[in-house]
């Protein structure tokens, strides 16, 4: 087995006290994530970053009132892939967050960035949401139409490196971490989500629903204490 750790979206805008889309307790995850980053068993350590243009479709102020309240309103999003324009999805609206080049898009300094081998910037196409580090909300994969949304073909890199197992941590557990873990499983990797190394936008029912989806996709839920035994190494 060869394992990769994916640290999802540990960015200022997702963290208290000043993040525009702060996830409760997100910053407190740093010691747990840093301990995982230092496990010798990982072949590759990846960090993803939400990196949106200012006109991104998920930003509430980019839509006309009254249906433009962040968190509570949903709009209809169309698949931007050529020939797939009839495909639509509901998209929850968010406060403006992680705009490319702003301090809110930076990785929080508490994360040991020296240990990161590869950064994946995602959500860069204004027309479509991209929670997962692998594919956009319609499942468009990086190398195809999704080129404008993401700067790395993560599935390709993991495959080239012979990765068999993927461990996902970070925020938000019920959005980007869940989607990344589910897509890793769909891409054929053994996929795990480290439960004490994530926090959620909606920690109650949001997380319960996310866990049902994760289990249905074959993603294993593990604790950080179990990871060392699973990845081997010292
Ligand atoms: C995320 C909402 C909007 C996440 C990103 O990182 O989970 N959530 N954009
Ligand atoms: Zn986002």
TrEMBL record:
GO terms for molecular function: metal ion binding; nicotinamidase activity. Keywords: Hydrolase, Metal-binding, Pyridine nucleotide biosynthesis. It holds the Pfam family Isochorismatase. The keyword Metal-binding applies. One of its GO terms (biological process) is pyridine nucleotide biosynthetic process. Its EC number is 3.5.1.19. Pathway: Cofactor biosynthesis; nicotinate biosynthesis; nicotinate from nicotinamide: step 1/1. Belongs to the isochorismatase family. This is nicotinamidase. The lineage of its organism: Eukaryota, Fungi, Dikarya, Ascomycota, Pezizomycotina.
């Amino acid at each position: 087995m060869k394992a990769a750790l994916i640290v999802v979206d540990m960015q200022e805008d997702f963290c208290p006290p000043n993040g525009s889309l702060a996830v409760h307790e997100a910053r407190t995850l740093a010691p747990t994530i840093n301990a995982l980053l230092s496990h010798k068993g990982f072949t590759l350590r990846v960090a993803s970053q939400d990196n949106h243009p200012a006109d991104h479709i998920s930003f509430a102020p980019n839509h006309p009132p009254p249906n433009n309240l962040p968190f509570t309103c949903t709009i209809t999003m169309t698949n931007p892939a050529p020939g797939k324009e009839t495909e639509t999805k509901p998209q929850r609206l968010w406060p403006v967050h992680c705009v490319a080049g702003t301090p809110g898009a930076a990785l929080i300094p508490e994360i040991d960035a020296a240990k990161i081998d590869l950064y994946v910037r995602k959500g860069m196409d204004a027309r479509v949401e991209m929670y997962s580090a692998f594919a956009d909300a319609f499942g468009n994969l990086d190398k195809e139409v999704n080129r404008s949304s993401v700067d790395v073909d993560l599935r390709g890199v993991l495959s080239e490196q012979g990765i068999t197992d993927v461990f996902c941590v970070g925020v938000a557990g019920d959005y980007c971490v869940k989607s990344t873990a589910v897509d890793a499983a769909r891409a054929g990797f053994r996929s795990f989500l480290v439960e004490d190394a994530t926090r959620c936008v909606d920690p109650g029912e949001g997380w319960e629903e996310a866990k049902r989806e994760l289990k249905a996709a074959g993603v294993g839920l593990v604790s950080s204490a179990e990871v060392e035994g699973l990845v081997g190494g010292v």
